[in-house]
Write a structure and sequence with these properties.
The protein has 8 helices and 21 strands. The protein has about 450 residues and is α+β, with helices and mostly antiparallel strands.
Length: about 450
C-alpha cells in the first residue's frame, strides 16, 4: 500500500566516548516511499547485537503492507522467521575459521537482544483521516511534534524515571522469551515532525521537557552529522546525557500538493447517505431554533448568579497541555484569560431547572462553538458513581483550579492545544461513563453537556 507522501528523512549516529563507528550497535532503516521507519538498539552485552537489530528494522520496513497492529497481535509469529535468519547467520560465523574464538559466543552469551521502535504512516482513509501507527519494545522512543506547535507526544516511555539499566527487548532466539511490544496510533498532517531516538537521547529529551528547558528543539534543525556530533558532545560535556551509542532518525511529513484527503473514495454518496445528511441538517436547524428561544428567555430574566460568576473569575490562569500518550511532557502552548472576557453560563441538558447555570465557561470573544458537549480531563477523585446507574457525579471543589475544556473530538487522544475551549469552574456535574486517561492513571476524560446562553456579550 503506497504512502501517498514524500516524507523527508535524515538520520545521525555516533558511538560511545572512546569507541569507533564500527562499534555502534544502533541501527535505523526506512522504506523507499517513506511510509515506514524503524530504529533499534542492540544490547552490547549480547551476541552480535548489531546484526540482530539490523534484521529487525530491515524486515519491518520491507514487509508491512497492512496495519502494524497485526504485529502487535501476533508478535511471536512475526519474530520467528527473523530469529531463524539470525540463527543461520550465527551458524555461518561459527564455521568461519577466520573469526576469533572469543567472538563466536559462549554458553552464557549465545543470543542477541535489541530494543525497537517501528513507525508506519497510513494513507488517508475514507473519512480523510491520516493515521500513524507505532510499535515498540524497550526504551528506544518515538516523539511527534505537531506542525506549528510545540506539543510533544512521547511513546512508549514518557517519564525520565522509566529509564533503567535493564530494559525490555526482542531476543534473537525463541528459546529466550522476548517481551511483548506495545502499540499506539494517532493522527498526522503536513509538517508534523517525528523523532526516533535510542535510549540515551530519548531520556535526555524527556528530562529536558520535564525541566522546561526545551533545548531538544535544536534536534529539529540539525542538518549535518557534524552538527549532530557537536551537539551531543556538548551535552556529554555538560553531563546531561549518558555515554552511550546515540542515534536519531528525523522524519518530516510532506504531502504532495493536489492530493486530497478523500482521493481514495471518489465515488459519490449513495441516496441513503444523502437522506441521512438532510435529516441531520433538519435536526440541526430545529436545535438552533430551540437554543435561540432559550437564550431569548434567559436574557429577559434577571440573573441571580451574576455575583457568583464575578467571585469565581480567575485572572491569568495558565493551561499546561500534557502529552497525548502520557507523561509530564509540557507544551509551550499556554493561554491566559482575563476577567473582562465574556463569561458564558453552562446549563445542564438533563436538568429540569433550565434557567439555573451549573457553572461558567470563559471564552475568547472571537471563538464560536455550537456543539453541546466538551471534553474535560478530571482527577478520578472528583468522580462518584450514582448507584445502579451508568452515570457519575463530577464535583469540582470550590478551592480547585478551574479545569481546562476541549472541544468535542471522536476520542480525547486526538485533542490538541488548538482544541482548548475554556475553563470549567467549581460546581457539580452529571456525566456518563468516564474514559481512562492515557496521560495520567489517576485522571479520567469525561464529556460535559451544556447549553449556550450569552452573557455580557
Amino acid at each position: 500500500m503506497p504512502n501517498h507522501n514524500q516524507n523527508e528523512i535524515v538520520h545521525f549516529t555516533m558511538p560511545k566516548i572512546g569507541e569507533q563507528e564500527t562499534d555502534i550497535q544502533d541501527v535505523c532503516c526506512w522504506s523507499t516511499d517513506g511510509s515506514l521507519a524503524a530504529i533499534a538498539d542492540g544490547a552490547s552485552t549480547t551476541l552480535w547485537p548489531r546484526e540482530w537489530a539490523n534484521i529487525l528494522v530491515e524486515h519491518f520496513c520491507r514487509d508491512n503492507q497492512d496495519s502494524i497492529d497485526c504485529i502487535h497481535q501476533q508478535w511471536e509469529e512475526w519474530l520467528r522467521p527473523l530469529q531463524e535468519e539470525w540463527r543461520q547467520h550465527s551458524l555461518k560465523i561459527k564455521k568461519d575459521s577466520t573469526i576469533p574464538w572469543y567472538a563466536q559466543g559462549s554458553r552464557e552469551k549465545d543470543h542477541g537482544s535489541a530494543t525497537f521502535v517501528g513507525l508506519k504512516f497510513r494513507p488517508p482513509n475514507q473519512t480523510g483521516e491520516r493515521i500513524w501507527e507505532a510499535l515498540a519494545v524497550g526504551d528506544s522512543c518515538l516523539f511527534q511534534i505537531k506542525a506549528n506547535s510545540d506539543e510533544l507526544v512521547a511513546f512508549p516511555l514518557n517519564k525520565s524515571e522509566q529509564f533503567t539499566t535493564v530494559t525490555n527487548c526482542f531476543h534473537s532466539l525463541p528459546e529466550y522469551k522476548s517481551y511483548p511490544p506495545v502499540f499506539t496510533d494517532g493522527l498526522y498532517e503536513e509538517g508534523d515532525i517525528f523523532l526516533l531516538a535510542t535510549d540515551a537521547l530519548a531520556e535526555w529529551i524527556i528530562k529536558d521537557c520535564e525541566n522546561l528547558i526545551y533545548r531538544w528543539k535544536n534536534l529539529i534543525s540539525v542538518a549535518t552529522q557534524e552538527e549532530f556530533t557537536n551537539f551531543i558532545n556538548q551535552l556529554r560535556d555538560d553531563k546531561l546525557i549518558k555515554n552511550d551509542d546515540t542515534t536519531l532518525l528525523r522524519l518530516k511529513v510532506v504531502i504532495p500538493q493536489g492530493i486530497k484527503p478523500n482521493s481514495q473514495n471518489p465515488n459519490p454518496q449513495n441516496f441513503g447517505d444523502k437522506n441521512l445528511q438532510l435529516l441531520v441538517i433538519i435536526l440541526g436547524i430545529i436545535a438552533v431554533l430551540g437554543l435561540t428561544a432559550l437564550v431569548f428567555r434567559i436574557k429577559n430574566q434577571p440573573n441571580s448568579n451574576t455575583n457568583v460568576a464575578q467571585e469565581k473569575t480567575t485572572n491569568n490562569v495558565p493551561i499546561n497541555v500534557k502529552s497525548a500518550t502520557g507523561g509530564n511532557l509540557p507544551s509551550a502552548s499556554a493561554s491566559s484569560y482575563r476577567s473582562n472576557y465574556p463569561e458564558l453560563p453552562i446549563y445542564s441538558v438533563e436538568s429540569s431547572e433550565s434557567d439555573k447555570p451549573i457553572g461558567y465557561l470563559f471564552k475568547k470573544p472571537s471563538e464560536q462553538d455550537n456543539s453541546q458537549s466538551l471534553w474535560v480531563h478530571v482527577p478520578k477523585a472528583y468522580l462518584n458513581k450514582i448507584e445502579e446507574t451508568d452515570r457519575f457525579i463530577m464535583t469540582i471543589p470550590v478551592d480547585a483550579t478551574p479545569l481546562p475544556l476541549y472541544i468535542d473530538k471522536p476520542e480525547p487522544k486526538f485533542l490538541s492545544p488548538q482544541d482548548f475551549a475554556g475553563y470549567l469552574l467549581p460546581a457539580q456535574y452529571s456525566v456518563f461513563q468516564p474514559i481512562e486517561s492515557r496521560t495520567f492513571k489517576d485522571a479520567r476524560w469525561v464529556k460535559v453537556n451544556f447549553r449556550w446562553a450569552n452573557k455580557g456579550g
